[in-house]
Amino acid sequence: MNSKYEKVSCPTCGIDTKKKLVHKRDDGIGFYKCLQCNIEYASPRLVEKELLKLYEGDDWKDLSKYDDWTYENWKNNKEFHYYLVQENSNLVKKFLNKGSSVLDVGCDIGLTVKSLEENGYYSEGVEISSVGAKIAKEKTGITVHNMQLGDYQSDIKYDGVLLLDVLEHLYDPIKVLTECGDRMKQGGYIFIHVPHHGGISTRFKRFLHKKGLKKGYKHFGFPAHIYAFDRRSLKAILTKSGFETVHYESWPSSITNGKVNFFNYIFIHIIKKLALSDYIICVAKKV
Question: Which residue has the higher pLDDT, 81 or 53?
Answer without folding.
Answer: 81
